[in-house]
Amino acid sequence: MPPTPPSSDLALSSLTAVTPVDGRYADKCVALREHFSEYALIKRRVEVEIYWLLHLADEGVIEQLPPFDAATRAALEALAKDFTVEQAERVKAIEKTTNHDVKAVEYFLKETFKSADAALTSRLEFFHFACTSEDINNLSYALMLAEARKACVMPAIAQIEKKLVSMAHELAEVPMLSHTHGQPATPTTVGKELANVVHRLRTQSAAIEAVPILGKIAGATGSYQAHVVACPNVDWPKLAQKFVTSLGLSWNPYVTQIEPHDFVAELFHACERYNTVLLDLAKDMWGYISKGYFKQRVVAGEVGSSTMPHKVNPIDFENAEGNMGIANALFGHLATKLPISRWQRDLTDSTAMRNLGVAFAHSMIAYSALLKGLGKVEINPTMLAAELDSNWEVLAEPIQTVMRMYGVENPYEKLKELTRGRRVDAEGMRSFVETLELPADAKARLMALTPGSYIGEAAKLAKAI
After folding, report:
1. Among 78, 92, 174, 266, which is least packed by CB within 10 angstroms?
2. Active site residue 7
3. pLDDT digits (tens, 9 = 90+) for 135-164
């Protein structure tokens, strides 16, 4: 039987969406729609156009554009604040004729106020005054990034840190065998390993938060050429700086047609590093679950395998790993692509910039999965204790260190002969210690030592995070 041909008019829904961002995982990304959707971009463009017009009028630098009265200002600000999806659809309808998205916004504004506000009728041409489309776009994207960072990214990061800190404190004193090069190594505690992750994440989250979000409004090639011809007595760089900073952004004084996106690269590299730390955690948690150090709480109704009923798979950590990989691929590509533009501007950044939200969306999906996974695991003290008790040879390190302190000859070599490639049990290790010529208190400390008690300052460090 031949396959049913696909329908060409499927209505968009979570089931028909092409990408999982707006399909399977839409509920994890819904908060980003306000910041990175097509509607969000159009809304920011409307805001920038309106506030630029108001700024020019308020500064009184153009004789033909005096300050607006209170009613007209209120009407302009109301549109900027309350711009709707329906109004965005009107902009898109205009774009079908203009084939230019920013020009469509300008025409929409002129259309909206042409007959609605008499005070604006004679001043409609001051919408988009001396602007290139990239003056509007760069500020719009900058606002989107700044707002998404504050409203979505940093709260998600804080939630992850809070969970990991809680676990680090709770498990601060739970000893765990370490593994270096995949081999049994000096014990740690579960809490200390989680504290390590928190410390790394804090460094990268601080970097994410610290990146200045830049903007410009300097004309077609960045030197205010049209501005100066129209109004030669205005200090346009100073006026531009005042406008950009009034939006809550940092001003970039040296640009071409575009703001060169170096700050976007800096931000995305910081996001990529943050995600890399979480990737490391997700893989480690997967491994610890595989070794039985952690158990996963069974959720009623869930199925682990379609054919093996006994399985409880670490799917949340696997989901997090997969989505952070996609996010980092996008962050990495955008960070290396966006700062490169042929001569004073090419258009390759335009289509690339539309994917800013996709990179953040896959990050948000990953963060949600990771938090879910962390919420389902519980420590398996029996397995942890058994692993420690099976690896007494890890005490070779402290024993040879004490031997060095008291001048015993060839301490490393003697422990190497005793332990390398061999399993040594408690009796064997203590029998060796008994033969050593050490002060009584030092020998007593070594005789009392176990793999589970050989954790140094791990618990203290975990509790201090």
Report:
1. 78
2. no
3. 999 999 999 999 999 999 999 999 999 999
